[in-house]
Amino acid sequence: MGTEKKTKGLMGIGVITAIASSLCCITPVLALVAGSSGAASSFSWIEPARPYLIGITALVLIFAWWQKLKPAKEDDCGCAIDEKPKFFQSKKFLGIVTVFAIVMTLFPYYSHIFYPETGNSTIVVEEENLEEVTVDIEGMTCDACQNHVDHAIGELEGVVSVSTSYEDGNTTVSYDKSKTEYIEIINAINGTGYKAIEDE
Q: I need a surface site. Which of 19, 24, 170, 183 has the fewest CB within 10 A?
């Protein structure tokens, strides 16, 4: 019974660390769904700890599976104890927890599917109206961050293309300056909760 409690506790720790490891990447999607775009960068401070949290999640789940799969103990008469565990202490539940942990850990790699297409098809009538700018951005830590910025800028009228990179810490925007202004792009970035670094 003590082993079952230990395994249940390990499953809880595994779920918590899996969620924590992807919290910085889930928040932008949740902010988009909730309509509070500015909260997107709330958990970006967790990103440096992400590899450690993923490691803890993996170790905890491996240990939980080892506890679950090791041979059953025998009682005083030498008979194996064969009592059916409750659902929350079963292999099936541990399997569900493991799949959930994997899905949460891999979230940054498929977060883009939660962002709708902006559908902005801007036609530039005059070539001299086409402007391209690159803006440095502070606070982005993963694919979800860059998707969030892309979506916010892409919603602006006059934006022809936008390409954001969290690795480079910037976004490159091509837009029709007769339909939108540079300051609107800056405001869209800042509205996501990340910080646009304007040229002096």
A: 183
